[in-house]
Amino acid sequence: MKTTKVIIIILAVLLLCSSTFAETNTGPFGIKWVASVEELESMGIKLKTISLKGRITIYISSKLPKNISMAELYFLFFDKQFKLQKVKMISKDITGDAYGSEGKKTYSTFKSKLQKKYGAPTIEIERVGLALYDGHGEFYQCLAYAGCGKWASAFETSDTAITIELKGKRRGSGYILLTYEGPSWSNAVDAMKSSTSKSDNDAL
Fold first, then answer.
1. pLDDT tens profile 70-99
2. SS3 content of the chain, % helix, strand, coil (to 5)
3. How many domains are contained in the chain?
4. Beta-sheet pairing, 123-127 with 150-156
């Protein structure tokens, strides 16, 4: 009888652990954190390497299992140890929008959906005209100019940091940037900095 009870307890613990792992392993756009390049490619996702920075390799893809309709490209960041830990979605350009009306509307739509799913934003910065480009028709120039303005909100879950931004390109043109950082992204960045520092020390 005791043996049976022990087995039941062990199974319950295992089920709890597997459930917790599933909850903390969820990523955006139908993919999971800690996935390898090979695992994503086996799902039919086409990846192309665009950058190699020490232990972090960046890939691009035009399509993921769960797409956002206005997505132009996805950037996926893989660490050698922690594997997939960051994803960025860049939208198609918003054009002919000198006053930012369409961009603000699109941004608000995305923000509302994120808020409904993840709760209230932890950070909200929606200001323009702080430097240089302060005219009504210079909304996107301001967003593209450092220190002039920022249109962004941040959300957090137990394992993911999410940021939505309205970015400027030129007069009347901008885009939406969605960034998801996984549970070990900060560890990957710290490891990369440590590796770079060690390499610099060895070179001296």
1. 999 999 999 999 999 999 999 999 999 999
2. 35, 30, 35
3. 1
4. antiparallel
